[in-house]
Automatic annotation (TrEMBL):
This is Octaprenyl diphosphate synthase. Keywords: Magnesium, Metal-binding, Transferase. GO terms for biological process: isoprenoid biosynthetic process. Its EC number is 2.5.1.90. Supplies octaprenyl diphosphate, the precursor for the side chain of the isoprenoid quinones ubiquinone and menaquinone.
């Protein structure tokens, strides 16, 4: 693990575990096809805090796990996540992620999709090595739910009539599900009480919801240089995220009509400054951040029954940081 990560308070209690995860990731990227290794290393080494594998490690250690399968589980979770990033950037026609050119922008769509498929397939090979059918069942279900969430988001592009419930269903699938599966499967490695494993499952789900809500908030309130992507990307794609849904509900007829047009016609970037003002003035940003805060609080409440430890402290810190971040 890079020193910048191992020094973070959230990562420090499992720094040695994370070093092993990093070794496994690079070992399992090995392929006789050079392009797979090139793109694979490009994307997994492109930054990010690897929150999902971190959840695996912290959940397992928080419940007293002393074996070594949690590092393999954490590595395969990162492969699953990385494969979705490769696919998402193709679907979204993204050219920038974490301040770097996306793989599809550099090598093209076809290689990105196929290398994403390789990483997904490799993650299932690693699941077999973990050797737990219950864990495989959870992760297999998670992959289906994530795919459903991505398709649901795709079908909702340009649809200004979705409800907040529709929005939450989408982000639970496409984002929160892998957070949930990460914390849950890490806990499942242990012999802890079922109530403790369930608490960590709920923690992961609520953390993932808070994380995505802040992502959607930052698309209208963030700084492009800090985020490593462009402000208004969701608007440009016609994605009806919570800030827009709330702004339509609270704005006047003219404001609501402009946002509806932006979603339906995909011409939001032509009216970006006006829409940013509407989103601010209607309280949509404050509302979205409050929903994220509520989810983070639920995550913290779920941890209440988990025994105190440095690992639990890191989980609590993750929940707080999820809603305080600017990137």
């Amino acid at each position: 693990m890079p020193m910048s990560l191992s020094a973070l308070p959230t990562h420090a209690p499992v720094a040695d575990d994370f070093e092993q995860v990093n070794r496994i990731i690079h070992e399992r990227l090995a392929s006789g096809v050079t392009l797979i290794e090139t793109i694979g290393h490009y994307i997994v080494d492109s930054g990010g805090k690897r929150v999902r594998p971190l959840l695996v490690l912290l959940a397992a250690r928080a419940l007293g796990y002393e074996g070594d399968r949690h590092t393999l589980l954490a590595a395969l979770i990162e492969f699953m996540h990385t494969s979705t990033l490769l696919h998402d950037d193709v679907v979204d026609e993204s050219s920038l992620r974490r301040g770097k050119a996306t793989a599809n922008d550099t090598w093209g769509n076809a290689p990105s999709i196929l290398v994403g498929d390789f990483l997904y397939s490799r993650s299932f090979e690693m699941m077999v090595d973990v050797g737990s059918m219950p864990i495989m069942a959870v992760l297999s279900h998670a992959t289906s739910t994530i795919a459903e969430g991505e398709v649901l988001q795709l079908t909702n592009i340009g649809n200004a009539d979705i409800s907040e419930d529709d929005y939450y269903r989408t982000i639970r699938g496409k984002t929160a599900m892998l957070f949930e599966a990460s914390a849950h499967t890490g806990a499942m490695l242990t012999s802890a009480p079922e109530a403790h494993k369930e608490a960590l499952r709920v923690f992961g789900q609520e953390l993932g919801m808070a994380f995505q809500l802040i992502d959607d908030y930052l698309d209208y309130a963030g700084n492009a240089a800090e985020m490593g992507k462009n402000v208004g990307d969701d608007l440009a794609e016609g994605k009806p995220t919570l800030p827009l849904l709330h702004a339509m509900q609270k704005g006047n007829a003219e404001e609501a009509a402009l946002i509806r047009q932006a979603i339906e016609k995909g011409d939001g970037m032509d009216h970006l400054e006006t829409i940013l003002r509407i989103v601010r003035d209607t309280g949509a940003l404050d509302y979205t951040r409050q929903q994220a805060n509520d989810r983070a609080q639920r995550a913290l409440e779920a941890l209440a029954i988990i025994p105190d430890s440095p690992f639990k402290d890191s989980l609590s810190l993750l929940a707080r940081q999820a809603v305080e971040r600017s990137v």
